[in-house]
């Protein structure tokens, strides 16, 4: 029954105090010692994973019953190796790392790995020509590349660009109030800004691609937009004093994304010919072969400015003649 | 670096004063502090001509002179101040906005006269314009002049102003040393004297913590002045206070920045706040605290509609006070444009000039990178700024486009981005070293400033070429040369 409770929390690690509280709801008067005994039993049988927090408390996660039966058939040292591989989760762990941590003879380690592979507990993956071991049923981290954004190891620019524009437009629409002046803004401490999960939801709804869209991918896209200066990331903490819930209420304090207004770049230097000249830094000198006196860009720039001023004057003169 | 600056200063002086004075100024800029004889020797002009040139430059606050005792004789040394020369570039802005900043008519005429003549008196200004003392215009201008002086746009010229800051410091040091010893001072005595002078320094542009030094010459509280109080001396020489005008120009840029980043209403409020702290010394790190109520009183009432339209409030029907407070809080949240000090009197706000100036510089720099290298360049620059030193692998992990376009960051290397080598083996073999990319924004600003100086100097050169009757090589010849160089 305890195992059922832990299993019901899903694939997360649960604090032992929390589990105890939940058990108390179902079976009151379960003392702490009995509870610890049960947990210990479960651990020995292999039905739960154990992890220690920095506060010297333990957290537990359930394992499936099939895995547990297979684990019971393993030797002690094989069990330890299995735990190491399990803790590496999606990253995988190499043979050398296992050996460093286990301190067993190499042949023993190899034979245990082979044994577990035959039993379909672990598998071997080879990202970047390096052998790594990970659990059988976990998707490998896929060389830290996402299936959505990469094809054949290269970033798929078309997908990336279209996702960027979808995300940016969505965030832009939600960053400024509608139905008001085009330059309107929200009041300070407004909490309706867009969060990561909302962006993911929006992208999923557009059904732009059939590949499964993961939060990590969208987070990467949003990071790129932040580095381009189009959006900013803010931490908003809305602590509600009325709610005393402590479980999974992270939606109250989290990061939101706010778009920045698009503005015209009006830099004076890049408007002058020197700002765009390929010879400006090294080749152009005061009296050299390439110099401001011999520059071909300056006359073009100056003529353009003169024409603009003359057109403006003519327009003004034209206005005067029309008036009367 | 210094070369571009020197070239620009020479062109500025040639533009304003002509080629003869330019020669004399060039000698001073290149060689530093010199007596008259050497200046005339290096500039290859007669002593009397050099003297006349120096006189003009002194009149326009460009050259400092000081009389020092060398053995049994007194000699006069002259030195030029580069910053004063560069300040002349901004004169157009000062004249254009003088009326708006002083908020009195006629301020631009007075400013123009003062800038044209370097130093001037009020009487001189009146005579120059041929204004009769009995007209209304005279009274108006006198009032304007009074306001300008009160708000420190013009400062009176003192006799000690002819000495440069360096000369004053060395004189003070000599005086202190004379008290201690008659002979050559020891290292310890020098150190003591220097420490004493540093503690006593009159330099009030340095802010000491959060309290400012009280300088009894310039208490700026807007006290009620009675009529006829403190008349302006009409024969006192005044000069334009560049620092004050630069501060106003900076405030204008801040308002433009706020307008572009947020909206017009926020920029109006920022302008009001900046106008209230107008009396501050220009180089303070942060302004004094202003209460929200004072800000609310000073905001023009006719703008309330605009404020309403441009901010969606939490609930409907907010009052004017709450609306303005919302804007103030928004400015606090957004990048710390304002900062809230405490909650007295409805909230006291301060402006941190240093931080806003940093944001302005950053925006200009990132705009330049965007125009020259595109979005990829901006990404790399911002990434390196936020995450500090990174090697190629780490950059690729964050910004994948790196891998397929190494050109983007190679071009960036032109002085903006630095590489730090971290060798893994003792022999520093390239295959076994980490190469970390890093960016230092301050260095980038210096590179950019140098580019600006060079560009301005180039524009001046082109202009002088046109004025002197165009360059000697014909157009086709110029084009051919450029093309062969490209090939």
From TrEMBL, chain A:
Q: Name one GO biological process term.
A: transcription by RNA polymerase III
Subcellular location field: Nucleus
**Entries under Gene3D superfamilies matching the protein:** Winged helix-like DNA-binding domain superfamily/Winged helix DNA-binding domain
Q: Does the keyword Ribosomal protein apply?
A: no
Question: Mind telling me which GO cellular component terms the entry cites?
Answer: RNA polymerase III complex
InterPro entries in UniProt: RNA_pol_Rpc34 (IPR007832), RNA_pol_Rpc34-like (IPR016049), WH-like_DNA-bd_sf (IPR036388), WH_DNA-bd_sf (IPR036390)
What is the predominant subcellular site recorded for this chain? nucleus
Q: Which keywords label this protein?
A: DNA-directed RNA polymerase, Nucleus, Transcription
What this protein is reported to do is described as: DNA-dependent RNA polymerase catalyzes the transcription of DNA into RNA using the four ribonucleoside triphosphates as substrates. Specific peripheric component of RNA polymerase III which synthesizes small RNAs, such as 5S rRNA and tRNAs.
Q: According to its UniProt record, which protein family does this protein belong to? A: Belongs to the eukaryotic RPC34/RPC39 RNA polymerase subunit family.
Q: What is this protein called?
A: DNA-directed RNA polymerase III subunit RPC6
Q: Which organism is it from?
A: Rhizophagus irregularis (strain DAOM 181602 / DAOM 197198 / MUCL 43194) (Arbuscular mycorrhizal fungus)
TrEMBL record, chain B:
- What InterPro entries does this protein map onto? POLR3C_WHD, RNA_pol_III_RPC82-rel_HTH, RNA_pol_III_Rpc82_C, RPC3, WH-like_DNA-bd_sf
Question: Which cellular component, as a GO term, is one annotated location?
Answer: RNA polymerase III complex
Gene Ontology biological process terms, A to Z: DNA-templated transcription
Task: Outline the extent of the DNA-directed RNA polymerase III subunit RPC3 winged-helix domain.
Answer: 366-439
Molecular function terms, GO-annotated: single-stranded DNA binding
* Domain RNA polymerase III Rpc82 C -terminal, residue spans: 144-360
Entry's localization field: Nucleus
Name the keywords, alphabetized: DNA-directed RNA polymerase, Nucleus, Transcription
All copies of domain RNA polymerase III subunit RPC82-related helix-turn-helix, residue ranges: 8-64
Record text on subunit structure and interactions: Component of the RNA polymerase III (Pol III) complex consisting of 17 subunits.
**Which PANTHER family does this one have?**
DNA-DIRECTED RNA POLYMERASE III SUBUNIT RPC3, RNA POLYMERASE III DNA DIRECTED -RELATED
Q: Which family does it belong to?
A: Belongs to the RNA polymerase beta chain family.
Q: What does this protein do?
A: DNA-dependent RNA polymerase catalyzes the transcription of DNA into RNA using the four ribonucleoside triphosphates as substrates. Specific core component of RNA polymerase III which synthesizes small RNAs, such as 5S rRNA and tRNAs.
Protein name, as recorded: DNA-directed RNA polymerase III subunit RPC3
| Origin species | Rhizophagus irregularis (strain DAOM 181602 / DAOM 197198 / MUCL 43194)
* Lineage of the organism: Eukaryota, Fungi, Fungi incertae sedis, Mucoromycota, Glomeromycotina
């Amino acid at each position: 029954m305890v195992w059922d409770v832990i299993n019901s929390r899903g694939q997360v690690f649960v604090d032992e105090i929390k589990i105890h509280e939940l058990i108390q709801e179902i079976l009151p008067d379960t003392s702490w010692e009995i509870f610890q005994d049960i947990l210990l039993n479960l651990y020995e049988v292999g039905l739960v994973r154990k992890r220690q927090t920095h506060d010297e408390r333990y957290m537990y996660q359930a394992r499936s019953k099939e895995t547990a039966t297979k684990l019971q058939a393993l030797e002690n040292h094989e069990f330890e190796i299995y735990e190491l591989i399990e803790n590496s989760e999606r990253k995988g762990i190499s043979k050398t790392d296992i050996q460093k941590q286990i301190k067993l003879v190499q042949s023993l380690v190899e034979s245990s790995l082979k044994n577990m592979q035959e039993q379909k507990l672990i598998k071997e993956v080879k990202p970047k020509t390096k052998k790594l071991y990970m659990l059988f049923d976990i998707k490998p981290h896929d060389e830290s590349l996402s299936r959505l954004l990469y094809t054949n190891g290269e970033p798929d620019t078309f997908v990336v660009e279209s996702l960027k524009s979808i995300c940016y437009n969505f965030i832009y629409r939600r960053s400024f109030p509608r139905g008001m002046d085009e330059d309107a803004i929200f009041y300070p401490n407004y909490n309706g800004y867009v969060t990561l999960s909302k962006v993911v939801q929006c992208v999923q709804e557009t059904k732009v691609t059939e590949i499964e869209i993961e939060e990590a991918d969208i987070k990467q896209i949003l990071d790129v937009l932040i580095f381009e200066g189009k959006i900013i990331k803010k931490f908003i903490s809305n602590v509600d004093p009325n709610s005393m819930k402590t479980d999974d209420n992270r939606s109250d304090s989290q990061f939101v994304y706010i778009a920045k207004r698009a503005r015209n770049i009006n830099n004076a230097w890049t408007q002058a010919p020197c700002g765009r000249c390929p010879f400006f830094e090294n080749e152009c000198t005061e009296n050299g072969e390439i110099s401001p006196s011999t520059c071909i860009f300056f006359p073009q720039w100056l003529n353009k400015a003169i024409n603009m001023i003359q057109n403006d004057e003519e327009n003004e003169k034209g206005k005067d003649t029309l008036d009367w | 670096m210094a070369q571009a600056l020197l070239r620009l200063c020479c062109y500025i002086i040639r533009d304003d004063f002509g080629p003869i004075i330019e020669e004399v100024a060039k000698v001073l800029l290149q060689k530093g502090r010199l007596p008259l004889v050497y200046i005339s020797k290096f500039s290859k002009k007669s002593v009397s001509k050099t003297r006349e040139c120096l006189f003009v430059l002194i009149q326009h606050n460009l050259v400092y002179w000081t009389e020092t005792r060398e053995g049994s004789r007194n000699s006069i040394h002259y030195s030029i101040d580069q910053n004063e020369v560069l300040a002349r570039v901004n004169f157009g802005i000062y004249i254009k906005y003088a009326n708006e900043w002083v908020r009195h008519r006629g301020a631009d005429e007075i400013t123009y006269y003062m800038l044209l003549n370097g130093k001037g008196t009020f009487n001189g200004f009146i005579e120059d314009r041929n204004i009769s003392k009995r007209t209304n215009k005279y009274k108006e201008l006198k009032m304007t002049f009074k306001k300008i002086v009160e708000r420190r746009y013009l400062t009176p010229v003192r006799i000690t102003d002819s000495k440069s800051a360096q000369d004053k410091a060395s004189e003070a040091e000599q005086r202190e040393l004379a008290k201690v010893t008659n002979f050559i001072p020891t290292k310890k005595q020098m150190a003591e004297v220097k420490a004493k002078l540093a503690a006593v320094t009159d330099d009030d542009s340095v802010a000491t913590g959060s309290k400012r030094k009280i300088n009894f010459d310039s208490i700026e509280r807007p006290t009620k002045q009675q009529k006829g109080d403190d008349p302006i001396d009409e024969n006192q020489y005044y000069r334009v206070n560049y620092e004050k005008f630069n501060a106003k120009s900076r405030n204008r840029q801040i308002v433009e920045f706020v307008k572009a980043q947020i909206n017009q209403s926020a920029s109006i409020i920022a302008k009001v706040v900046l106008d209230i702290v107008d009396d501050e010394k220009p180089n303070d790190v942060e302004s004094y605290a202003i209460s929200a109520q004072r800000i609310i009183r000073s905001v023009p009432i006719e703008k309330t509609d605009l404020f309403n339209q441009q901010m969606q409030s939490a609930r409907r029907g907010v009052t004017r006070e709450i609306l303005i407070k919302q804007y103030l809080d928004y400015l606090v949240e957004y990048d710390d444009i304002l900062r809230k000090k405490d909650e007295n009197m409805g909230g006291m706000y301060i402006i941190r000039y240093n931080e806003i100036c940093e944001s302005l510089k950053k925006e200009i720099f990132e705009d330049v990178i965007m125009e020259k290298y595109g979005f990829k360049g901006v990404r790399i620059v911002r990434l390196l700024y936020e995450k500090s030193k990174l090697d190629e692998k780490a950059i690729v992990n964050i910004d994948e486009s790196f891998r397929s376009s190494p050109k983007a960051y190679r071009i960036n290397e032109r002085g903006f981005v630095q590489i730090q080598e971290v060798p893994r083996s003792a022999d520093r073999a390239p295959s076994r070293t980490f190469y970390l990319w890093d960016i230092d924004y301050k260095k980038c600003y210096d590179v950019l400033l140098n580019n600006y100086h060079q560009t301005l100097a180039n524009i001046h050169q082109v202009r002088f070429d046109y004025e002197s009757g165009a360059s000697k090589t014909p157009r086709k010849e110029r084009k051919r040369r450029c093309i062969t160089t490209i090939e």
